[in-house]
Amino acid sequence: MTHRLHLMFLLVTLIGQAQNFTKRDSLQGSLRSERTAFDVLRYDLNITINPDNRSITGHNAITFKWITKSNKIQLDLFENMQVDSIVFGQKKLNYNREFDAVFIDITPEIQNTAEVTLLFYYSGVPKEAKRAPWDGGFVWKKDGNGKDFIGVAVQGTGASLWYPVKDHQTDEPDRGASVKVAVPNGLMNVSNGRFMGKEDLKNGYTRWDWEVKSPINNYNIVINVADYVHIHDQHNGLDLDYYVLRENEAKARQHFEEVKPMMDCFQSKFGTYPFTEDGFKLVETPYLGMEHQSAVAYGNKYLKGYMGNDMTGTGVGLLFDYITIHETGHEWFGNSITSKDIADMWIHESFTTYSESVFVECQFGYEKAMTYINGQKRMVGNRKPIIGQFGVNFKTGNSDMYYKGALMLNTIRHIINDDTKWWAMLRKYAETFRHQIIETKDVVEFFTKESKLNLAPIFNQYLNFTNLPELEIRVVKKKVEARWNTNVSAFEMPIDYFSNGTNTRILVNNDWVKLPNTSSVEDVQVDLTKMLITLKK
Q1: Predicted model pTM
Q2: Which residues touch 526 (CB under 8 Å, ≥6 apart)?
């Protein structure tokens, strides 16, 4: 996509999404010079969690390099949390706070240090979630044996809800992170990456140490605290680890067998699992689920579907565990490939929602996959554009980034009309942008180049407008004609229809074109299973 077209995308989005945002929103969502001046290399988090008073104490060692030397940088920690001190070497640094932003004064000594490590000491009672994972925060529950069962989910809300961090999606720690969490004896903490060992601190607490080798989204760094049982498995060289409540061990061993065919499917369609050096885990959580990298949160009660229900109403959704499949799909789309701004979260959610029907097709065939994805049409709202507003930590908050976006991808698959080409393209997309942070224009340019089709107007219509492409069919002087009614110009997309005993595919644009093999509007039966459109006759 050209620079001019990208500007059009942004302009349309800004007009369509204009809302009232505060300075707090801008401080969290924007890329000010105090943020762009440095690049985070690593986080080393070391904390103690006290379930009795629901508090956290500890520090994060934040290592970064300079992009542009600055006398002030911005880190982030929710304002209800206490900053105890920020230390470089043996010296405490001056700072000031504005909402959730922490502006740190940088001394000449720090400016002249190539690699800087700041120790950010903090404490407090983090915000609790009322409807995790949707509202963001900690969840404090008990298991069936009365033991603590604790989790956290902060996507969209911000990782700075519970630990100090450069809280923006554009910067992932290039060298990964360590997460060391002390919890009361008798409990275990499970975090991202590989388990490195535990240490009895001789004070009633045991510290559990985890190491992440890969770059990781801020909101994906996680703690999970419970009386867990560890189940280890392996599949084609990939470590599979499951951490489940003691009371659920037997059912988990059987239920998670679904992971193996899922991995076979996803690796065949999207390429090698992106975090092999960190392994793959499912961790039982006191909330429904979240795509925490290499430690996927699972709370679907060991049921098929979505808590035992099929959201598509087709019956196909009860053939698999929605949380296992969807949240693992995010390992490729969201964790490996990440959007620069959460306004572009469709890059995460549309592809991941599409991965559900990909799994169905791997396991049950094309017809079942088409039944499933077309069943998702009932969830398309068309009330807001899919793309949100940039620079204010804002996403649209509606389901269209999931279902409408997935159906857009299904539409593009059938525009291309060559499955060998489509699957090769999808895999190349996942491999090309592996461990990268991208934006909408990158996606559009990739699929346009690989397909050799002008897909930019199609992406534009689905992502930036609430109206679906409308196929209008009429009869003029005994000739049946069709055209697309769209908000964007130069919109061109083929249709498949059956008429007078013949299947026909024809390219239709915004101008009237004659439909061959037709005698009346009523005879034209458009195949609506292959695309997300409306029809006007």
Answers
A1: 0.94
A2: 471, 473, 495, 496, 497, 535
